[in-house]
Design brief:
Blueprint (H helix, E strand, L loop, with lengths): L1 E2 L2 E3 L3 E3 L5 E3 L7 E2 L10 E4 L2 E4 L7 E6 L13 E6 L3
Antiparallel strand pairs: 1-2, 2-7, 3-4, 4-5, 6-7, 8-9
Protein name: Radical SAM protein
Keywords: 4Fe-4S, Iron, Iron-sulfur, Metal-binding, S-adenosyl-L-methionine
GO molecular function: 4 iron, 4 sulfur cluster binding; metal ion binding
Length: 86
């Protein structure tokens, strides 16, 4: 489900009192209703973890493949890199 704030995340656990535990990184933020995690891109909306940066690309660039950790994958080709906040 997508809302104004983004898309509902998949990597989280529900906790009592509408809290959620984000499991997307090693911080395992426990986020209360209406609060945002340390990353600034995940937050608790009515007991569900939302991704605020979903579908919001802030940068896109074509790079040589050798610049990425894909160095042995199609040498001499190019790769399209994207970035979001967080």
């Amino acid at each position: 489900m997508t809302t104004i704030l983004g898309k509902q995340a998949e990597l989280y656990e529900k906790l009592p009192d509408d809290k959620v535990k984000c499991t997307a990184c090693a911080r395992y933020c426990e986020i209360g209703k209406g609060q945002i995690g340390l990353c600034g891109i995940r937050g608790n909306e009515n007991g569900k973890l939302q991704l605020f940066a979903y579908g919001k690309v802030i940068s896109g660039h074509v790079d040589p493949i050798e610049k990425k950790p894909l160095i042995h994958y199609y040498p001499g080709s190019r790769v399209y890199s994207i970035a979001t906040t967080g």
